[in-house]
């Protein structure tokens, strides 16, 4: 008897695909060669029309569902939504999840070795955009024999990629599912990203991005960046419910250096844990990709005009307490799709968990997500 739940995809093994054709980038540079690491769940049917692409958010990666070993206790980051009978049902769909270029979980990124120098790319790794990622994902689809995705799905930064797929390759997806996302960042969001980047860049161990050559990492900067980011992912209600003003030791210490409140302890733990598993240059790269995303810019800010070329049906979902990508930003997308006369479904979910709600098994969210995905037609 398997120790994994019946609705789990079980053991999964990451796969690696090398590309030798140069990839032109929006910044004007090109990657001469690169690798993408990805996982698949379920089986591609004979018609090849049941493939679903999962696009990850800022700190995400290819491990979206299942387990890498019998001993692993924590499943992939979107296991709540991917598996037999789940919203993205692997009994029906062939699911592909990858680590984006510039990442730090196996795909070519700043911590990878530059074949031209024999050293880590570090600060020399080119700036990436959402459009660059989508172009690299299209090449992976070609290798996998997927001419058209049944759906491209993502939350947050992943939702931006799903939208960009529908814009860049309108004939290559039938459904676009964008969750807790925005058509571009607000000034406030760009400001949060800049504070996080400055925390990293001003760390004495950053060494202009070439910290690997010094055998160090900008740990303190990464910790602070994660702490700032994590605050924005949670709602005031969820933080209040989880921590309130609870003290760790039931008394005040009147000491600037001590950790007195439970929320302080939680944020420091999150920062410590993150700094041990994420690359600083990747964090800078991912936040810049967020900042640069603005598909309407190609049409003088007219998002509806940008959406005129779409062929996909769209599902847009938002969460009431998400102030990082508020429901109002999702409604901007919906309004532009309607103005462009494109088919769109929209759901605003009452949820106390803030931006992170898209990762959680909230019943109304999962039911709506499942209902939509179940209506996607695929061959037997």
TrEMBL record:
<feature type="active site">
    <location>
        <position position="322"/>
    </location>
</feature>
<feature type="binding site">
    <location>
        <position position="226"/>
    </location>
    <ligand>
        <name>substrate</name>
    </ligand>
</feature>
<keyword id="KW-0963">Cytoplasm</keyword>
<feature type="domain" description="AB hydrolase-1">
    <location>
        <begin position="50"/>
        <end position="359"/>
    </location>
</feature>
<comment type="subunit">
    <text>Homodimer.</text>
</comment>
<keyword id="KW-0012">Acyltransferase</keyword>
<dbReference type="GO" id="GO:0009086">
    <property type="term" value="P:methionine biosynthetic process"/>
</dbReference>
<dbReference type="InterPro" id="IPR000073">
    <property type="entry name" value="AB_hydrolase_1"/>
</dbReference>
<dbReference type="GO" id="GO:0009092">
    <property type="term" value="P:homoserine metabolic process"/>
</dbReference>
<dbReference type="GO" id="GO:0005737">
    <property type="term" value="C:cytoplasm"/>
</dbReference>
<protein>
    <recommendedName>
        <fullName>Homoserine O-succinyltransferase</fullName>
        <ecNumber>2.3.1.46</ecNumber>
    </recommendedName>
</protein>
<comment type="similarity">
    <text>Belongs to the AB hydrolase superfamily. MetX family.</text>
</comment>
<feature type="active site" description="Nucleophile">
    <location>
        <position position="156"/>
    </location>
</feature>
<feature type="binding site">
    <location>
        <position position="356"/>
    </location>
    <ligand>
        <name>substrate</name>
    </ligand>
</feature>
<keyword id="KW-0486">Methionine biosynthesis</keyword>
<feature type="site" description="Important for acyl-CoA specificity">
    <location>
        <position position="324"/>
    </location>
</feature>
<keyword id="KW-0808">Transferase</keyword>
<comment type="function">
    <text>Transfers a succinyl group from succinyl-CoA to L-homoserine, forming succinyl-L-homoserine.</text>
</comment>
<dbReference type="InterPro" id="IPR029058">
    <property type="entry name" value="AB_hydrolase_fold"/>
</dbReference>
<keyword id="KW-0028">Amino-acid biosynthesis</keyword>
<dbReference type="InterPro" id="IPR008220">
    <property type="entry name" value="HAT_MetX-like"/>
</dbReference>
<dbReference type="Pfam" id="PF00561">
    <property type="entry name" value="Abhydrolase_1"/>
</dbReference>
<dbReference type="GO" id="GO:0008899">
    <property type="term" value="F:homoserine O-succinyltransferase activity"/>
</dbReference>
<feature type="active site">
    <location>
        <position position="355"/>
    </location>
</feature>
<comment type="pathway">
    <text>Amino-acid biosynthesis; L-methionine biosynthesis via de novo pathway; O-succinyl-L-homoserine from L-homoserine: step 1/1.</text>
</comment>
<dbReference type="GO" id="GO:0004414">
    <property type="term" value="F:homoserine O-acetyltransferase activity"/>
</dbReference>
């Amino acid at each position: 008897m398997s120790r994994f739940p019946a609705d789990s995809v079980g053991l999964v093994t990451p796969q690696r695909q090398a590309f030798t054709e140069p990839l032109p980038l929006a910044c004007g540079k090109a990657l001469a060669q690169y690798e993408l690491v990805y996982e698949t769940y379920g089986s591609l049917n004979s018609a090849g029309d049941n493939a679903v692409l999962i696009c990850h958010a800022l700190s995400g990666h290819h491990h979206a569902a299942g387990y890498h070993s019998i001993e692993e206790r924590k499943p992939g980051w979107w296991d709540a939504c991917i598996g037999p009978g789940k919203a993205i049902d692997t009994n029906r769909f062939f699911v592909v999840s990858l680590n984006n270029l510039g990442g730090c979980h196996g795909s070519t990124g700043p911590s990878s070795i530059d074949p031209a120098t024999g050293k880590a790319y570090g600060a020399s790794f080119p700036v990436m955009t959402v459009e660059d990622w989508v172009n690299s994902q299209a090449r992976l689809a070609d290798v996998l024999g997927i001419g058209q995705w049944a759906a491209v799905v993502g939350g947050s930064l992943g939702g931006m990629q799903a939208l960009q797929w529908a814009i860049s390759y309108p004939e290559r997806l039938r459904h676009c599912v964008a969750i807790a996302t925005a058509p571009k960042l607000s000034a406030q969001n760009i400001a949060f990203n800049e504070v996080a980047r400055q925390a990293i860049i001003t760390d004495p161990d950053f060494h202009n991005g070439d910290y690997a050559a010094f055998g160090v990492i900008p740990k303190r900067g990464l910790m602070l960046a994660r702490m700032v980011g994590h605050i924005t992912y949670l709602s005031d209600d969820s933080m209040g419910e989880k921590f309130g003003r609870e003290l760790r030791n039931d008394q005040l210490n009147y000491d600037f250096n001590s950790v007195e409140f439970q929320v302080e302890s939680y944020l420091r733990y999150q920062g410590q844990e993150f700094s041990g598993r994420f690359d600083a240059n990747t964090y800078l790269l991912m936040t810049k990709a967020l900042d640069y995303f603005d598909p309407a810019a190609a049409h003088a800010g007219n998002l509806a005009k940008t959406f005129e070329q779409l062929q996909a049906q769209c599902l847009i979902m938002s969460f009431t307490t998400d102030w990082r990508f508020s429901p109002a930003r999702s409604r901007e997308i919906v309004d532009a799709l309607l103005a462009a006369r494109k088919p769109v479904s929209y759901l605003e979910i009452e949820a106390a968990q803030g931006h992170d709600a898209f990762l959680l098994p909230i019943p109304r969210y999962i039911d709506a997500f499942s209902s939509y995905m179940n209506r996607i037609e695929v061959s037997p």
